[in-house]
Protein backbone atom coordinates (compact mmCIF):
# COMPACT_ATOMS: atom_id res chain seq x y z
CA UNK A 1 0.00 0.00 0.00
CA UNK A 2 1.43 3.36 -1.03
CA UNK A 3 1.58 6.12 1.54
CA UNK A 4 1.72 9.89 1.22
CA UNK A 5 4.78 11.05 -0.77
CA UNK A 6 7.45 12.96 1.17
CA UNK A 7 9.10 15.95 -0.49
CA UNK A 8 12.83 15.45 -0.06
CA UNK A 9 13.83 19.13 -0.13
CA UNK A 10 10.86 21.18 1.20
CA UNK A 11 12.70 24.44 0.58
CA UNK A 12 13.87 23.41 -2.89
CA UNK A 13 16.55 21.00 -4.09
CA UNK A 14 20.13 22.24 -4.58
CA UNK A 15 20.50 24.10 -7.88
CA UNK A 16 16.87 23.43 -8.79
CA UNK A 17 16.08 24.63 -12.30
CA UNK A 18 12.35 25.03 -11.80
CA UNK A 19 9.35 23.90 -9.80
CA UNK A 20 7.98 21.16 -12.04
CA UNK A 21 7.53 17.57 -10.90
CA UNK A 22 10.96 16.67 -12.33
CA UNK A 23 12.55 19.35 -10.13
CA UNK A 24 11.06 18.02 -6.89
CA UNK A 25 12.50 14.70 -5.64
CA UNK A 26 10.06 12.71 -3.51
CA UNK A 27 10.00 9.55 -1.41
CA UNK A 28 6.91 7.37 -1.82
CA UNK A 29 6.38 4.96 1.09
CA UNK A 30 5.09 1.44 0.46
CA UNK A 31 3.73 0.08 3.72
CA UNK A 32 3.24 -3.63 4.54
CA UNK A 33 -0.40 -4.74 4.65
CA UNK A 34 -2.04 -4.81 8.06
CA UNK A 35 -2.06 -8.63 8.14
CA UNK A 36 1.74 -8.78 7.70
CA UNK A 37 3.96 -8.58 10.76
CA UNK A 38 6.26 -5.60 10.13
CA UNK A 39 9.97 -5.75 10.71
CA UNK A 40 11.90 -2.78 11.99
CA UNK A 41 13.83 -2.48 8.72
CA UNK A 42 13.38 -0.43 5.58
CA UNK A 43 14.71 -0.34 2.02
CA UNK A 44 15.32 2.73 -0.12
CA UNK A 45 14.46 1.69 -3.69
CA UNK A 46 16.12 3.46 -6.64
CA UNK A 47 14.35 2.90 -9.99
CA UNK A 48 16.03 2.09 -13.29
CA UNK A 49 16.08 4.42 -16.27
CA UNK A 50 19.59 5.32 -17.56
CA UNK A 51 19.57 8.63 -15.62
CA UNK A 52 17.08 10.13 -18.09
CA UNK A 53 13.78 8.31 -17.78
CA UNK A 54 12.58 6.42 -14.71
CA UNK A 55 10.59 3.19 -14.50
CA UNK A 56 8.57 4.03 -11.39
CA UNK A 57 5.83 1.48 -12.10
CA UNK A 58 8.28 -1.42 -12.06
CA UNK A 59 9.85 0.02 -8.89
CA UNK A 60 6.48 0.10 -7.15
CA UNK A 61 5.93 -3.58 -8.00
CA UNK A 62 9.29 -4.49 -6.47
CA UNK A 63 8.42 -2.32 -3.49
CA UNK A 64 5.16 -4.22 -2.95
CA UNK A 65 7.10 -7.50 -2.98
CA UNK A 66 9.53 -6.17 -0.34
CA UNK A 67 6.59 -4.92 1.71
CA UNK A 68 5.15 -8.46 1.61
CA UNK A 69 8.23 -9.46 3.65
CA UNK A 70 7.26 -6.91 6.33
CA UNK A 71 9.81 -4.34 5.15
CA UNK A 72 8.92 -0.65 4.94
CA UNK A 73 9.91 0.61 1.48
CA UNK A 74 10.58 4.11 0.16
CA UNK A 75 10.74 4.59 -3.63
CA UNK A 76 12.85 7.60 -4.54
CA UNK A 77 12.04 9.74 -7.56
CA UNK A 78 15.42 11.41 -8.03
CA UNK A 79 16.43 14.15 -10.46
CA UNK A 80 17.50 13.09 -13.94
CA UNK A 81 18.69 14.40 -17.30
CA UNK A 82 18.03 16.41 -19.37
CA UNK A 83 17.72 19.08 -16.68
CA UNK A 84 20.13 17.55 -14.17
CA UNK A 85 23.47 15.79 -14.28
CA UNK A 86 25.88 14.64 -11.54
CA UNK A 87 25.74 15.28 -8.59
CA UNK A 88 21.97 15.93 -8.41
CA UNK A 89 20.80 12.30 -8.22
CA UNK A 90 23.49 11.38 -5.69
CA UNK A 91 22.59 14.41 -3.56
CA UNK A 92 18.96 13.27 -3.56
CA UNK A 93 19.93 9.73 -2.53
CA UNK A 94 22.23 10.88 0.26
CA UNK A 95 19.51 13.20 1.51
CA UNK A 96 17.01 10.32 1.46
CA UNK A 97 19.20 8.09 3.65
CA UNK A 98 19.74 10.91 6.13
CA UNK A 99 16.03 11.68 6.24
CA UNK A 100 15.20 8.04 6.98
CA UNK A 101 17.76 7.89 9.78
CA UNK A 102 16.60 11.19 11.25
CA UNK A 103 12.94 10.09 11.27
CA UNK A 104 13.55 6.43 12.16
CA UNK A 105 11.48 6.53 15.33
CA UNK A 106 8.57 8.13 13.49
CA UNK A 107 8.70 5.41 10.81
CA UNK A 108 9.17 2.60 13.35
CA UNK A 109 12.48 1.42 11.91
CA UNK A 110 15.97 0.78 13.23
CA UNK A 111 18.66 3.25 12.17
CA UNK A 112 20.94 0.24 11.65
CA UNK A 113 18.57 -1.60 9.29
CA UNK A 114 18.30 0.77 6.34
CA UNK A 115 19.13 -0.89 3.05
CA UNK A 116 19.20 0.33 -0.54
CA UNK A 117 18.18 -1.53 -3.70
CA UNK A 118 18.88 -0.23 -7.20
CA UNK A 119 18.15 -1.38 -10.75
CA UNK A 120 20.19 -0.38 -13.81
CA UNK A 121 21.12 3.29 -13.39
CA UNK A 122 19.51 3.10 -9.97
CA UNK A 123 22.00 0.32 -9.25
CA UNK A 124 24.87 2.60 -10.21
CA UNK A 125 23.41 5.29 -7.96
CA UNK A 126 23.01 2.83 -5.06
CA UNK A 127 26.60 1.63 -5.51
CA UNK A 128 27.90 5.22 -5.53
CA UNK A 129 25.93 5.92 -2.36
CA UNK A 130 27.51 2.87 -0.74
CA UNK A 131 31.10 3.69 -1.71
CA UNK A 132 31.13 7.51 -1.50
CA UNK A 133 29.93 7.60 2.09
CA UNK A 134 29.45 10.94 3.84
CA UNK A 135 30.10 10.95 7.60
CA UNK A 136 27.67 12.61 9.95
CA UNK A 137 28.47 15.99 11.48
CA UNK A 138 27.31 15.97 15.08
CA UNK A 139 27.69 19.75 15.30
CA UNK A 140 25.59 20.57 12.24
CA UNK A 141 22.63 22.89 12.73
CA UNK A 142 20.76 20.76 10.20
CA UNK A 143 19.61 17.61 12.04
CA UNK A 144 19.70 15.55 8.83
CA UNK A 145 23.40 16.21 8.33
CA UNK A 146 24.20 14.70 11.72
CA UNK A 147 23.69 11.24 10.21
CA UNK A 148 26.02 9.34 7.90
CA UNK A 149 24.88 8.14 4.47
CA UNK A 150 26.05 4.54 4.65
CA UNK A 151 23.34 1.95 3.92
CA UNK A 152 23.39 -1.20 6.02
CA UNK A 153 22.74 -3.48 3.04
CA UNK A 154 23.12 -3.07 -0.71
CA UNK A 155 21.14 -4.88 -3.42
CA UNK A 156 21.97 -4.34 -7.09
CA UNK A 157 20.21 -5.74 -10.14
CA UNK A 158 21.82 -5.41 -13.59
CA UNK A 159 23.74 -2.27 -12.51
CA UNK A 160 26.19 -0.17 -14.46
CA UNK A 161 29.37 -0.01 -12.39
CA UNK A 162 32.45 0.78 -14.47
CA UNK A 163 32.17 4.02 -16.44
CA UNK A 164 35.04 2.78 -18.60
CA UNK A 165 32.66 0.31 -20.24
CA UNK A 166 29.40 2.20 -19.76
CA UNK A 167 27.15 2.98 -22.73
CA UNK A 168 27.70 6.43 -24.32
CA UNK A 169 24.10 7.46 -23.61
CA UNK A 170 24.53 6.53 -19.96
CA UNK A 171 27.70 8.63 -19.68
CA UNK A 172 26.05 11.59 -21.34
CA UNK A 173 23.02 11.43 -19.05
CA UNK A 174 25.28 11.25 -16.01
CA UNK A 175 28.13 13.61 -16.89
CA UNK A 176 27.14 15.52 -20.04
CA UNK A 177 26.28 19.19 -20.10
CA UNK A 178 22.84 20.23 -18.94
CA UNK A 179 20.63 20.83 -21.93
CA UNK A 180 19.10 24.22 -22.62
CA UNK A 181 15.34 24.54 -22.68
CA UNK A 182 14.12 23.45 -26.10
CA UNK A 183 13.32 26.40 -28.36
CA UNK A 184 11.17 26.49 -31.45
CA UNK A 185 13.30 25.75 -34.49
CA UNK A 186 13.43 28.62 -36.98
CA UNK A 187 15.05 27.57 -40.24
CA UNK A 188 16.83 30.54 -41.71
CA UNK A 189 19.62 28.93 -43.69
CA UNK A 190 19.06 27.59 -47.18
CA UNK A 191 20.91 24.40 -46.28
CA UNK A 192 18.56 23.72 -43.37
CA UNK A 193 15.52 24.26 -45.60
CA UNK A 194 16.86 21.85 -48.24
CA UNK A 195 17.67 19.20 -45.62
CA UNK A 196 14.18 19.48 -44.16
CA UNK A 197 12.60 19.21 -47.62
CA UNK A 198 14.64 16.08 -48.43
CA UNK A 199 13.71 14.53 -45.09
CA UNK A 200 10.01 15.21 -45.65
CA UNK A 201 10.27 13.60 -49.10
CA UNK A 202 11.77 10.48 -47.52
CA UNK A 203 15.08 10.93 -49.34
CA UNK A 204 17.93 9.94 -47.03
CA UNK A 205 21.74 9.93 -47.17
CA UNK A 206 21.90 12.49 -49.97
CA UNK A 207 24.62 15.08 -49.79
CA UNK A 208 23.29 18.41 -50.96
CA UNK A 209 25.63 21.26 -51.85
CA UNK A 210 23.36 23.38 -49.68
CA UNK A 211 23.37 21.05 -46.70
CA UNK A 212 24.58 22.49 -43.43
CA UNK A 213 27.86 21.30 -41.94
CA UNK A 214 26.01 20.17 -38.82
CA UNK A 215 23.88 17.75 -40.80
CA UNK A 216 26.91 15.91 -42.18
CA UNK A 217 29.44 16.30 -39.42
CA UNK A 218 30.69 13.09 -37.85
CA UNK A 219 29.75 12.77 -34.18
CA UNK A 220 32.70 12.96 -31.83
CA UNK A 221 32.98 11.03 -28.59
CA UNK A 222 32.89 13.61 -25.78
CA UNK A 223 35.66 13.71 -23.23
CA UNK A 224 34.81 13.51 -19.55
CA UNK A 225 36.74 14.48 -16.46
CA UNK A 226 39.09 11.60 -15.59
CA UNK A 227 38.69 12.24 -11.87
CA UNK A 228 34.89 11.85 -12.11
CA UNK A 229 35.15 8.77 -14.32
CA UNK A 230 37.16 7.09 -11.57
CA UNK A 231 35.20 8.51 -8.65
CA UNK A 232 31.89 7.40 -10.12
CA UNK A 233 33.08 3.88 -10.95
CA UNK A 234 32.06 2.20 -7.67
CA UNK A 235 34.30 -0.86 -8.06
CA UNK A 236 37.28 1.52 -7.78
CA UNK A 237 35.89 3.08 -4.59
CA UNK A 238 35.10 -0.04 -2.56
CA UNK A 239 36.41 -0.02 1.01
CA UNK A 240 35.92 -2.04 4.17
CA UNK A 241 33.00 0.31 4.94
CA UNK A 242 31.03 -0.73 1.87
CA UNK A 243 27.92 -2.59 3.08
CA UNK A 244 27.22 -6.29 2.46
CA UNK A 245 26.01 -6.68 -1.10
CA UNK A 246 23.60 -8.86 -3.09
CA UNK A 247 24.03 -8.86 -6.91
CA UNK A 248 21.90 -10.21 -9.77
CA UNK A 249 22.77 -10.07 -13.49
CA UNK A 250 22.25 -12.03 -16.70
CA UNK A 251 25.19 -13.26 -18.73
CA UNK A 252 23.86 -11.90 -22.03
CA UNK A 253 22.69 -8.47 -20.87
CA UNK A 254 23.25 -6.24 -23.89
CA UNK A 255 22.57 -2.93 -22.14
CA UNK A 256 24.80 -3.31 -19.08
CA UNK A 257 27.29 -6.13 -19.57
CA UNK A 258 27.63 -8.73 -16.81
CA UNK A 259 31.21 -7.49 -16.37
CA UNK A 260 29.83 -4.63 -14.27
CA UNK A 261 28.55 -6.90 -11.51
CA UNK A 262 31.57 -9.20 -11.70
CA UNK A 263 33.98 -6.28 -11.29
CA UNK A 264 32.06 -5.03 -8.28
CA UNK A 265 31.90 -8.49 -6.67
CA UNK A 266 35.64 -8.93 -7.13
CA UNK A 267 36.37 -5.57 -5.52
CA UNK A 268 34.13 -6.41 -2.57
CA UNK A 269 35.84 -9.76 -2.09
CA UNK A 270 39.27 -8.08 -2.12
CA UNK A 271 38.13 -5.81 0.73
CA UNK A 272 36.55 -8.72 2.64
CA UNK A 273 33.06 -7.25 2.28
CA UNK A 274 30.35 -9.96 2.34
CA UNK A 275 28.94 -10.44 -1.17
CA UNK A 276 26.48 -12.81 -2.82
CA UNK A 277 26.16 -12.83 -6.61
CA UNK A 278 23.69 -14.67 -8.85
CA UNK A 279 24.31 -14.88 -12.60
CA UNK A 280 21.59 -16.16 -14.91
CA UNK A 281 22.49 -17.68 -18.26
CA UNK A 282 20.08 -15.52 -20.22
CA UNK A 283 17.56 -12.76 -19.81
CA UNK A 284 16.76 -9.31 -21.10
CA UNK A 285 17.96 -6.20 -19.29
CA UNK A 286 15.35 -4.58 -17.06
CA UNK A 287 13.52 -7.75 -16.04
CA UNK A 288 12.39 -6.38 -12.65
CA UNK A 289 10.52 -9.08 -10.76
CA UNK A 290 10.87 -11.39 -13.74
CA UNK A 291 7.13 -11.57 -14.33
CA UNK A 292 7.64 -11.80 -18.11
CA UNK A 293 10.78 -13.94 -17.84
CA UNK A 294 9.71 -16.57 -15.27
CA UNK A 295 13.10 -18.27 -14.87
CA UNK A 296 14.43 -14.95 -13.52
CA UNK A 297 11.69 -14.63 -10.89
CA UNK A 298 13.67 -16.93 -8.59
CA UNK A 299 15.95 -14.03 -7.64
CA UNK A 300 13.31 -12.75 -5.21
CA UNK A 301 13.43 -15.90 -3.10
CA UNK A 302 17.23 -15.76 -3.06
CA UNK A 303 17.15 -12.10 -2.07
CA UNK A 304 14.52 -12.73 0.63
CA UNK A 305 16.73 -15.33 2.27
CA UNK A 306 19.72 -12.98 2.02
CA UNK A 307 17.66 -10.22 3.69
CA UNK A 308 16.75 -12.70 6.41
CA UNK A 309 20.45 -13.48 6.88
CA UNK A 310 21.18 -9.77 7.26
CA UNK A 311 18.38 -9.28 9.80
CA UNK A 312 16.03 -7.34 7.49
CA UNK A 313 13.33 -9.99 7.17
CA UNK A 314 12.12 -13.01 9.08
CA UNK A 315 9.82 -15.99 8.64
CA UNK A 316 10.32 -16.15 4.88
CA UNK A 317 7.54 -18.40 3.53
CA UNK A 318 7.71 -18.05 -0.23
CA UNK A 319 10.30 -17.49 -2.91
CA UNK A 320 7.74 -16.14 -5.37
CA UNK A 321 6.93 -12.45 -5.98
CA UNK A 322 3.30 -11.31 -5.67
CA UNK A 323 1.29 -11.57 -8.90
What topology does this entry show?
Elements: E1 6-7, E2 26-30, E3 42-46, H1 56-67, E4 72-77, H2 88-102, H3 104-107, E5 114-119, H4 121-131, E6 153-157, H5 168-175, H6 190-200, H7 213-216, H8 226-231, E7 245-250, H9 259-270, E8 275-280, H10 299-309
Parallel strand pairs: 3-4, 3-5, 5-6, 6-7, 7-8
Antiparallel strand pairs: 1-2, 2-4
Short description:
This protein is an alpha/beta fold.
Distance between the termini: 15 Å
Number of separate structural domains: 2
Which bin fits the share of residues in helices? 25-40%
Number of helices: 10
Architecture of the largest domain, CATH level 2?
3-Layer(aba) Sandwich
Main beta-sheet annotation: 8 strands, mixed
Our Rg estimate from Cα atoms comes to: 22 Å
Give structural notes.
The chain has helices at 56-67, 88-102, 104-107, 121-131, 168-175, 190-200, 213-216, 226-231, 259-270, 299-309; strands at 6-7, 26-30, 42-46, 72-77, 114-119, 153-157, 245-250, 275-280. It has 323 residues and is α/β, with parallel strands linked by helices. The protein has two domains: 6-175 and 226-309, 3-Layer(aba) Sandwich (Rossmann fold), CATH 3.40.50; 184-221, no CATH class. Strand 5, helix 4 (121-131) and strand 6 form a beta-alpha-beta unit. The radius of gyration is 22 Å and the shape is globular. 40% of the residues are buried. The model is unreliable at 182-191 and 202-219 (pLDDT under 50).
Amino acid sequence: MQGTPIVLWPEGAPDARGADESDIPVLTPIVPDSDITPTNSCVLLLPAGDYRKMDLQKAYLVGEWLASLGILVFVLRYRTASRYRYPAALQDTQRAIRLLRNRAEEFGISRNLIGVMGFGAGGHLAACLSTLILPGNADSRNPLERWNTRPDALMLLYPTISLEIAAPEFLNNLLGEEEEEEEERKPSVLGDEVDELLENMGILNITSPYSSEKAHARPQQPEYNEFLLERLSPHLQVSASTPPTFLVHTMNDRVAAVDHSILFAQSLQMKNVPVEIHLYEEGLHGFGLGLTQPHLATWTGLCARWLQLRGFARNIKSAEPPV
